[in-house]
Amino acid sequence: MLIKDFLKKYWWRxxxxxxxxIVVDIIQIYIPKQIGNIVDVLEIPNFQMNDIKKLILGxxxxxxxxxxxxxLWRIFIIGAARLFQFKTINKMFDHIIELDQNFYDKxxxxxxxxxxxxxxxxxxxxxxxxxIMLVDTLFMSIFTIIAMGNFVNWKLTFLAIxxxxxxxxxxxxxxxxxxxxxxxxxxxTSELSNITEESVAGVDVIKLYSNKKTMEDIFNKRSKRYYDxxxxxxxxxxxxxxxxxxxxxxxxxxxxxxxxxxxxMNDITxxxxxxxxxxxxxxxxxxxxxxxxxxxxxxxxxxxxRINNVLEQKSLINEPEMRQMEFTGNYQxxxxxxxxxxxxxxxxxxxxxxxxxGDMIAFVGRVGSGKSTVAKLMAKIYPVDKGKIxxxxxxxxxxxxxxxxxxxxxxPQDNFLFSMTIRENISFSNKKxxxxxxxxxxxxxxxxxxxxxxxxxxxxxxxxxxxxxGGQRQRVSIARALAKKSEIIILDDCLSAVDxxxxxxxxxxxxxxxxxxxxxVISHRLxxxxxSDKIYVFEDGQIIEEGNHNQLMDKKSVYHSxxxxxxxxxxxxxxxxx
Length: 578
Ligand SMILES: Nc1ncnc2c1ncn2[C@@H]1O[C@H](COP(=O)(O)OP(=O)(O)OP(=O)(O)O)[C@@H](O)[C@H]1O
Known about the structure:
Blueprint: H1 2-43, H2 49-98, H3 101-106, H4 109-127, H5 129-151, H6 154-161, H7 164-201, H8 203-208, H9 212-264, H10 270-311, E1 331-339, E2 346-355, E3 360-365, H11 371-378, E4 389-391, E5 394-395, H12 401-407, E6 408-411, H13 422-426, H14 437-443, H15 447-452, H16 470-483, E7 488-492, H17 500-513, E8 518-522, E9 534-539, E10 542-547, H18 549-555, H19 558-577
Parallel strand pairs: 3-8, 3-9, 6-7, 7-8
Antiparallel strand pairs: 1-2, 1-4, 4-5, 9-10
Helix pairs in contact: 1-2, 1-5, 1-10, 2-4, 4-7, 4-10, 5-6, 5-10, 6-9, 7-9, 7-10, 9-10, 14-16, 18-19
Bound molecules: adenosine-5'-triphosphate.
Domain ABC transmembrane type-1: 16-299
Organism: Oceanotoga teriensis
Subcellular location: Cell membrane
């Protein structure tokens, strides 16, 4: 489909390119003829210098024709192939950027990278060099054989080309083996990219655990596998080329043997003998091209399959059309059960919630109890059954995910900052907000920290935000979410890197600054969220208690004991420090 659509639009590029390629093939046929003619003229006693000059001029003229022709076919055919690659890469990127979280949970980055790089390179070869090989195999071999027969002698032509089809057979046979090895190599390249990506991303962990050895072992194993695959491929190539050359040499031998005899018997001239030798040399490439062509088609098809596989990925969420909607931030969750796609385990069981605009809500509970999952579902990051989440009287399934996320700012636990300036990171949702970045940083209580950094707001955040401390990164992400100006802000345990007092102060400040907006805070520190309008206590995917702080304390149950435990821990901590 990809190729069909492209050819529908750019067939003319190929037509012009192929036309020039054929012209070049025809011109090439005449060069050996001219050379042969020169030899024959030289053999005439008292030859005319003028005839030689004319013939040499003819060669120069043909050579110029070759230069122009080759330049033009390259521009049209290789240009079109690169355009195809460029369009495919963009299409893949536009496609995956629209896919839901499930795709990113499932696919590994290294694998995706290989499909974007080496697979698109492979299909570029299919759309460019393979087309050239096809034309050369067909036209150049036919033209050369006709020229040999017509300009020299048909008998010698047949004798000389006897070994040549063997070259095509060898290329074909080797092509099959090469294809198998190449597929293996592609897989090993993906594996190597994966481990490289993982090792770089997790370099801190590797160092902190002083576990260079384990990682090195895994890396070396993968890299060795990649190396072995490559060597095995090179061996096949290495065997193929000398064999082809051997067959080419055999054809030349045939020409010497039979052609030599013919020259002695005066059946052909010396010029024609030289001509035949050159034509035989010219036939080696189209024969090899035939084998390469099959190779390229096979590899290209494998890569095309891998690319189509990415393009066929669908979001699990069927998005309705984007519509303008009044979004106030009222959420109703009714008997919500949930398991992650392709995972049977229920992580949420019978969740019921009623969140009103302007409320400050807290989700607390043990790790893995389902707090983040509820928050993600509220932002429509994963699909839910109908009738389970209602936003302003509308089922979440009937609202486009993007329009929900336009109104909901979700700040996740692992805050990813781009390698841009702090100012650009904060105003990521809208470039126009750049001059106001300071305001949002103040709201997120990170303004002072930013001013203390040498280049302030113009500091370029290193890869994955390494120039900032964990707490600073978290607050810059909050500032980025605030700049989005949405009706709901969800802070998913994103203040864990600051101390309790700072977390408490930031939340209080936020509440003051963004009145009328719904704030959902997921936190392990109960003290920081005790002023919430409502606190939901999670355990094992269920809500086991709900109410405000006082109501929950009066219950003297799970929340109460969690709170008292943290209070004691804080006291002990203070005494220890003091
Ligand atoms: N993408 C995923 N695929 C499959 N299971 C997942 C996925 N994300 C989370 N889970 C599982 O869902 C359960 C709830 O996870 P969730 O992140 O909602 O917990 P949480 O209460 O937010 O925990 P924490 O306080 O550690 O953030 C966990 O058992 C977790 O293993």
